[in-house]
Amino acid sequence: MKLVRGLATLGASCLAQVLLSRYFPGLSRYCDLFTILVVYYGLTRPQAAAMMMGAGAGLVEDSLVGAILGLNGFKKTLTGYLVGSFGSLFMLNQAIPRFGILFAATLIDPLVELGLTAAMGQSVIVPGMLGLLQRGLGNGVIGLLVFWIAARLP
Amino acid sequence: MAHLLAERKPFLLLLVLLTLNLVLMSSQVRGAGRGSLLEDAILNLCSPFLKSASWVSQGAAATWKSYAGLRGVERENRRLHEEVATLALKAQQVEETRQELDRLRGLLDFRSRVEYRSVPARVLASGAFGAGMTLLLDRGGHEGVERNHPVLTPRGVVGRVIRVEPGISKVQTILDPNSGVAVLIQRTRVQGILVGLAERGCRMEYVSELSNVEVGDVVVTSGLDQIYPKGLLVGVVTAIGEGEGLTRIVDVRPEVDFSRLEEALILLKPEGPPERESR
After folding, report:
1. Sign of the alpha-carbon torsion through A102, A104, A106, A112
2. Most buried residue, A41, A137, B31, B58, by most Cβ within 10 Å?
3. Predicted pLDDT at B31
4. Interface ipTM above 0.85
């Protein structure tokens, strides 16, 4: 049942991200629903579930954006683990800590990508700081909104 | 242990998931060898085994090739041995032909120097026939050979024809005890009769005790027997002994080697004076 729910959630996130990028391409640039999903799972579910969701969401994202299969899977798995570890250590029920977590998770994403591409001998493109901040803010705000909605779902 | 595993379960799961993702990525990212990183990694991991397998297969192939080569060499060796044997036989035949050619050339040269018509003949058989030392030649009546025709070689007198058949003739050599050749010592012109002693050579008889004869003197035909032309080489004096009465016995070694005689010249000597123009 948990698996079905997880898959359904993942499917819904995927659909939402596709729709967002189609109808609100400007907004989708600052919003990564898969990261938000993984952070949500990390904060509300056991660590293993967060990592599984991270791996699944990352692979789906890789398939969607045409990136190297496994790149986002790696990043999101790591994010799920870190958020899960952090969530098990601290009380992160309030909006501000959650925003901080969402912001940090958004920053982790390009940093890990940077390290991975460098490790694989690929050409490294350092992301712009402003873009990162905008994305972190976007994920934080939209993530809080998603968390609020999710808390009210049955 | 189980407790430790349960505690570390998230971390282990993380490792598994990260590894899976890394493997996935590696399978797509191109490495330095222009293959995917996964391929490169697998290749690097497997290369020692591949090299070993290649080394073993190459070694086996080389061994097999050497073995096959050895078999080939053995066959080749056998073939070459046969070829060498064949060629040796051919070389022997060629050498034989060359020697025969030399002898015949010598015979031809000698024939041109002889004042009579002659016919070359091949020795068919030699040895003791009956009581005498005789030869069989492959020329006979058809070629104009007659009884008492002298037989010579470039080295000296062989004997005379004693029997003639249409294509064959029998020769009594000067070694035959029944033969007699009128001879003389070339240096002092001392005359005598040469008789055969079979394997021991010849003996010059009826030589005066007072005659001047020395060992090493050359003996030639005197022509007085009306068979052999005058001046043909017969042999060399090897020993001088006392004969009956007032005579001496002179041992003569014939110049012709009868044991190796293969060709000879039969002089078609007519009755009367030599036919210079008939050659």
Report:
1. negative
2. A41
3. 63
4. no
